Fold this protein.
Amino acid sequence: MIYLDTSVLGAIFFREPNAAMALTRIEAVRARGLVISAWTLTEMASVGAIKERTGTIDRATRQQALSGFHRFASSSLVLIEIEPADFRSAALLIDGAGGLRAGDALHLAVAKRLSAELATFDRRLAEAAPVWGVALFPVG
């Protein structure tokens, strides 16, 4: 099972430079099971809103990217709900792992609970994952 964090999905659906390689790697392992958490839905909406507010993309591009993401999520990804214990685990991860943001700690906590490999482009999250016993899945 491979847990995809928002940095990977954002790159793919908002067409960032590293997107093609990530999509190729993910497509090659789809049969192993690709999962996201409900938190990813919120973060993807936020990524789109930030990109639109900062003028990086226009409203139509934002809507198109998010529609594509939602289609992909409903057809190819397993959506995992956040459990109360995930929040407590994330708080511990923040306290113990060098500079993780709350959202990244939550991704890490869910991946850890699922014993899933973590696919991320986030450097801090990638550095923290093995410290907490979460294997990384190389996306790029």
